[in-house]
Structures are given as C-alpha cells and as structure tokens.
Amino acid sequence: MTEETRSTCPYCGVGCGVIIETEANQIVGVKGDPDHPANWGKLCSKGATLHLTASENVTRQTRLLQPLRRFERSEVPKPVTWERALDTAADQFSQIIREHGPDAVGFYISGQLLTEDYYVFNKLAKGLIGTNNIDTNSRLCMSSAVAGYKATLGADAPPACYDDIDQAHCLFIVGSNAAFAHPILFRRIEDARKNNPAMKVIVADPRRTDTASIADLYLPLLPGSDVMLFHGLLHIMMWEGWINAAYIDAHTDGFDALKAMVRECTPEKVSEVCGLSKDDLFTAAKWFAKSEATLSLYCQGLNQSSSGTAKNATLVNLHLATGQIGKPGAGPFSLTGQPNAMGGREVGGLSNLLSAHRDLANTQHRAEVAKLWGVGDVPAKPGKSAVEMFQAAADGEIKALWIACTNPAQSMPDQATVRRALQRAEFVVVQEAFATAETCQYADLLLPATTWGEKEGTVTNSERRISRVRAAVPAAGEARQDWKIVVDFAHKLEAMGVGSEFRKTTSAATNNNADRNSALTPIALSPETAPSTTTLFPYPSPESIWTEHRESTRGRDLDITGLSYAKLEAQGPQQWPYPEGATEGKTRLYEDGIFPTPNGRARFAALPFIPLADPRENRYPFSLTTGRLRDQWHGMTRTGTLGRLFGHVAEPTVQLHPADMAERGWQDGDLVHLTSKRGSILVPTESSDSVAKNQAFMAMHWGAEYLSGCSSTGEPLAGVNALTTSAFCPTSKQPELKHAAIKVLKAELPWTLLGVAWLPEGQALSARRGLQALMKRFPFAACVPFGRERTGLLFRAAAHDAPNAALIAEIEALLLLNSAETLRYADRRLQQHRAVRLSSTGEGRKLEGFLLAGDTSAEVWLKALLQDELPADAYGRLLLMPGAKAPVAVKAKSKQVCTCFNVSEEAIQAQLTTSDGSDEQRMSRLQRDLKCGTKCGSCIPELRRLVKQSVPLIPA
C-alpha cells in the first residue's frame, strides 16, 4: 500500500511543496503538492526526480551510513560507534579550546540545513563554546542581499511575495537566470505574462540566458557594471522627472547625498562603462519608473560580487525613488538560492548575526540572546566569515573545523587555499549524508546525517513562508538528524566543562543587569523555553528547538509568536511576520510606508561604483562568469547520482563566443587551459552565442568529482573554483564567485581516451568512485553518468603520451571491460588500444561498453550505437578498427531538450519543419505531438527559442 507524506523540496529557495510516496519504508515516488502556495503542484526536472535520488541503490552506493574515523590522514576511514565518534570529537575540540581558546575552532554549515539544525549549531558555537566562528555557505549565496536590505530598508526582509509576479506591470530581472535557478517561479512568470500581454520584462545579464530569451528589453551589461547601471537609470529618472518626490519626502532619508553621487552618471558614461546603448537605458528607466507596478527579481549576479552590498542597495534605491514598493506587484525581491538560506538568517547562522535578525555587534542584542540562552554573555569578538575562516585554517590560526551539509572542497572560491586549510587543520569533522562529497576526503571524522525524506523540521522560502519538512522513511543506516548530532555533541562538551565559565556567571549577570536589561525587548520565557539548570540543550525534538527560536522573535521584525507546529500542520505553510494574536501572516511588507529603522524611514544608500576585484587585463583577457545548469544542483552530490539529469548537458565545457573560437581556429571539444591568478584547469570548449566576445561561461557545478586532472608537477587540479577569486564585498563578505579574469590557451594533449559502458544499477555509482580516484593520474579527465532506464558511465581523459598498461587495465576493469567476452585491439607503437563488450546472448547483440585509447575518432558513432542500444553484430571488425568511418545507419544523437520525455533537439526541429501557423500554434502542436514541455516545464524556454529560430512551413 502506498503512503503519502507532505514535505518540502530540498533544492532552491522557491520552497516547493512535495508529496512523498512510500511503500514498505522505501521512497517510490514524488509529486508536487497541489495545496502548497509556492508551487501549486508543479515541480521542476530536479524536484520531479527526487525519489530516484533516494532509491535503495543510490543510498547503498553513495550515502554515509555509519560513523567513520581516520586515525591517519592517508588511510581509509574505519567504522566506529556513535559513542566513540562523539567522544573523539569532544576530546579533540575541548583540548584545542583549552590550549588555544574558543576561537581556535570554527563551524561551517549550510543553507540546506533545517531551521532547527541551524539554531542549535548557532547556540553551540556562540552560547556554549564561546566563539563566533560559525558561518554558512549562505555567505556565498545571500549575505549581500542581507546587507543590502539592512542598509536601505532597515531589516533583512524581502518585502514582496510570489503573488506580486501576477500583479506586476513591469518585471526587472537582473543577475538571475531564473529559468534555470528557480524554474517553478519562472513558470509563474510565463503564466503572468500570458495573462497580461502588456507586461514589460527587462532582463539585465552579461549572458543571453534562457531567462533573457523572454525579455522585451535585454540589457547585456558588462560583468560587474551593475552599480553604474542602477545609478545611470536613477540619473535618467531624475532628469526626466520620473521619480516619486512625494514618496521620497514622506518615507525616506538620504536622497540628496545619492542625487549628488549619481549626477555624474550620465547616459554617455553609463553607456561606455556598461556596454549598453543610450536608447536602451532610457527605455529601461521609463518602464521601471512609469509602470503601474514594477517588481525586481535578482539573485547571485548581484550577490556574488566584491560590490555585492552596493549592487543590492542601489537597486533598492530605484524602488524607493519611484515609490515602487509596499504595493501589489512592486518591490525589490531577492530570490533565495538555497532551500533554507532564509531560515538560517532568521536564527543568526552567519558569523555577524544572532537569532531573530539581531546584530552581533549590538551590545543590547547580545544581552537579549544571552538572557534567552541562560548564559552570562555572548562573545563580542567578530567571528570569521566563510572565506576568512578557511584562510585562518590555512594559516594555522583555526585548528579544528566542523563542516555540516556543505561541500567547501567544491563550492568555495580559490580552491588551493581551501584545500590547504583542510589539510593543515588538526582535526576536521564532516557531518554529511553523502560519502561522495569531495570534502569527505579531508575528514578525520565522518558523521552520517539524515537527508531529504528522512528529516523533520521547518524551512523558510524566498517569500518568508515557513513550511514543514517531514520524514517519510526511517533514517538510512546509522544516520542521525543533524540537530540531534549537535545536541549529543554539546552534551559531551558540557560534561567536560566546556562553557562552564559562562554558565557560572549566568545567575549573577542576570541579577546584576536587571535594571540595565529592563529596557530590552521583553523575552517572556515559558517553561519549555526557560534556560535549563543542567544543560543549554534540553531538546527532545525539533519542535522544542523551534519553540525556543520562536520565542527569540518576539517583538522583532520577523515575529512568529503566533505560529506553532500545530498551526503549520492544520493550516499549511505560513508567512512571517505572524505575531501572537494574528490570524494570518503578512503577505507584503511596508505597505504603510513605515520601515524598521530608528525613525521609521527607509534610507537611500549613496554607494559608489567600484570596478571588478579581478579585472580583465592583457595577461588575462577573458571574463569568466559562472552559473547554473538547468537540471543540476550545487555540487551534484544528489542530482549527480542520476544519469538522466545529464541528458541536457552531458559533460563539462567552457562556453566561448563563436568569433573568439574562429579567430583561434578552435573547434567544439578542443581542450583548452583556463588560467587565472589562482589556478589552472583543462576543459573542452563549446561555441555559444549566449556569451559575448572576450567572455567565457562555465557551470558552477563542475567540481573535482566530475572534472579533474593533475599539473605537470603532479599537483591535483580541482574544478571551476580553482579559478575563482576569494576577494569579497567588505560589508557582506560575500566572495566574487561570479567573475574571474582568465586566459584561454589551447592544450596540446595528443593522446586521448574514452571509455563508455552500461553497468549494473547496483555497481555504477561505486564504479564511478573508482574512476574518480584515477582522474588525477591524467592532465585532464572527466567522469559523468548517463542513461535513463539503464545506468552508464563515461570516462574521458587526455595526456601527452599513453600511460602504462596497468592504468588502462584499471579503467577497463571498472567499466567491466575485463571479461573473457571482451574483444581487444592494441598497437603499442601507435599507442592505440581498443576494447569492446557486446551483450552475451540473443540475436542482434548490442554494444554494452567500449574503450578507445590513442584514437577516439570513432566516438561519434560508437557512443550512439551504445546509448541508443542499436544492434551491433553486423559491424564486426569496424568496432575495433582505428579510424573506422561511421556507418550510414548509425547517427550521433543530438542534445536532449526535454528531460521528462527524453525529446532531442533533432526531433523537435524535424517536427517544426512540418508545422505551420503562428509561434504559439506551433509551440502548442509541438507539445501535443512530442509531449515536451508538458510535465515539469523546465524545457519551455528552450522550446520557445527553437520555435522562434525555425522557419514555419507556411508563414502565419
């Protein structure tokens, strides 16, 4: 019998509701929750395949299922009991704290943790241990949005909501490829535009993304020039009289200083700096200012920058100057990157924050939290942000690191520094669900955590909506809830006396400060939230943690004292603020024009335009930008377990403009060195007119698990973040992950290897881990899965000369090409080697696997023969013959466009050549005949582009 459990998707910040289907304690299906207001039943290509990432096969091959310890860094980790693991962690941390002080340890956590997990981590570091060295990968994601909102509106609170998309008359999308990063929200944009054909859409992005394809006005601004663009738009608005003087006078401060700053940002200057036409600047300014309601949607293109705070704040300036805020369809709406980056901000997960949007630097705020927690004080010394923390570990200042639910050995910028930090730290704990994460290789202690489908708690999405996350199945193996691991560890530390000095002063501090604290925001402690006399962590359940967090919000901008687990169960997801006595949350903020600042007025931010931290120059003439793939998530520890999610983009590449490729005589697939001031990697090229000349694009997901190699000195090379800079915004401390100056040079690696094979489902992911271990033996190597109904692996490598036969034999064995049935050809003089394996029985035997070494030109047809599972018997010796031309009957398949129904670009174009009528009619017929775009909808922008590019049989 199939059972259903309502929960929330663990991917992006849209916060889609899902219904998990289970049978016999196994997840067997997932569907969108039709009652959840974030998605109303829709799911993207990632969300729709969640159940496949939780299958028994995936769990057995990829999950961390028991605590493991390395007694020596070079050895394979060995199983230990939970008791032994936590004792070891407590011993190591307490010793380092005693010898070097609490700031010698650091915690790096994640926007994919639940709010309850986040809260106890924050309390562990700041309340028990006494260090503010706790930061989160949300520092890499949303900290500039936090700083921008606080600098202008007074609090970290997105003022708009998803319903505003339906009511907007102008959408200004900047620094966001929502079509890939927030697909279900993009479906809402598409629907809103269909329902309101008069809506204007402006998209500003250096790259012509699928999001840009829907724009009425596309602004291909130069990387890093956003602040100049926003200042220039405000200059035009003031010059043309398009600002809202009444709103400025009634509700804001600081406009005169900003007006003086933008006076020099003339259309001529902005046009030059941003690379945009003056006509387009005037059009954008007019649509934004004169629209009945303008909504801005923005994400990492603004946030991940050394000017991230300025970019966010100067965009908010436009809304304040035009009064486009606090009304339906209007406002600056930051799209959250991770599923619970918002929840982490709510509980003070960043090193400069405390619970309920309190500031660590504020004496009163620290006293309030100390009173709630029952400690004498919260340390005042600023904690290390993410980049600073790993630099401090690399320098030997931080001796122990605890990393939870994130993969810094893939996702952090300047990987050379990050890996040096992980190697130098005396003790590294990795609390993780997936053993395949690159960071696990650096752990002294591995603690298995639960993941989606097994967790209990809450998350908050981009529109301030709190949703329940529910467990549908028991924890896999010995995995424990993240919050429970923290609480158990804290109890061990308490037993060792860690933090006792804070507890001893609690009573006296509370009494002595009674008069001084009387003016503080009242925190009425109920019995279940009153400080315990025996432990700071008296939590039997995630609900008990959430109840304490709720109390910390009383009287704050995000007050949720009117909410409870029971209300979330009965009424579904709710938005904050939701104070005690309220009957519903607040949909939209600042409708009364009153802001959470000392005088109730918003503040204009007069922040100057500052060029890129890593500008292009003669030695590094290309601008590298990074971004997302449509069907992948972050470091791909979850999505990377499914071959079908590699159908749209099969392998890592760097995209370059066709003119840059032609000038250098490069072809698609040619290997090039990408080199920045921090490192160098090898990657194949791909021609794309989505990037401008002298620019390059590479997806953020490609880490060392998928793309690797070694330098000429044998030093391992990591993925794309070997290139990115750790320079960060001085206010938000968010690094400039979106841009790096690089040079691109052709690689001369004449010897190539390609291995492709179908593998038994229960062995494929384990085989991939074996191949990943071999990747560093080559200057270039890539390893990716493929397949839908079956599971396959592709291993690609290149070198100056053929490696020894033993290495090739290892690759063959992992691809199951070492059986007696395998056919081989070898020519040592020409450094060529071939192996093919056919299915062993039946008529029309099919190709099950092959390896080409030295000459891989037959890839074009052998890969098609294997992946399309075509009869191969008839090709006989051609299968082993170097340089054999592709048989007429075998044609390489074009790229997949629709993941849900496996529809290729070739099939779509063939259908369009026989279709007539308008673009909408042809699109409708395409969806009817091929089904593409009719399930998750993630491919719809690409389908529309193909329709627009094609020539109808009979023009409309």
TrEMBL record:
Q: What is this protein called?
A: Nitrate reductase
- Residues covered by the 4Fe-4S Mo/W bis-MGD-type domain: 2-58
Which species?
Hydrogenophaga crassostreae
Keywords of the record: 4Fe-4S, Iron, Iron-sulfur, Metal-binding, Molybdenum, Nitrate assimilation, Oxidoreductase
Q: One GO cellular component from the entry?
A: oxidoreductase complex
Matching entries from CDD domains are given as: MopB_CT_Nitrate-R-NapA-like, MopB_Nitrate-R-NapA-like
Q: Which cofactor does it need?
A: [4Fe-4S] cluster; Mo-bis(molybdopterin guanine dinucleotide)
The text of the family note is: Belongs to the prokaryotic molybdopterin-containing oxidoreductase family. NasA/NapA/NarB subfamily.
Top-level taxon of origin: Bacteria
- GO process terms (BP): cellular respiration; nitrate assimilation
Q: Which GO terms describe its molecular function?
A: 4 iron, 4 sulfur cluster binding; metal ion binding; molybdopterin cofactor binding; oxidoreductase activity
Query: Record keywords: 4Fe-4S included?
Result: yes
Name the Pfam families for this protein.
Fer2_BFD, Molybdop_Fe4S4, Molybdopterin, Molydop_binding
List the InterPro entries. Asp_de-COase-like_dom_sf, BFD-like_2Fe2S-bd_dom, BFD-like_2Fe2S-bd_dom_sf, CT_Nitrate-R-NapA-like, MoPterin_dinucl-bd_dom, Mopterin_OxRdtase, Mopterin_OxRdtase_4Fe-4S_dom, Mopterin_OxRdtase_prok_CS
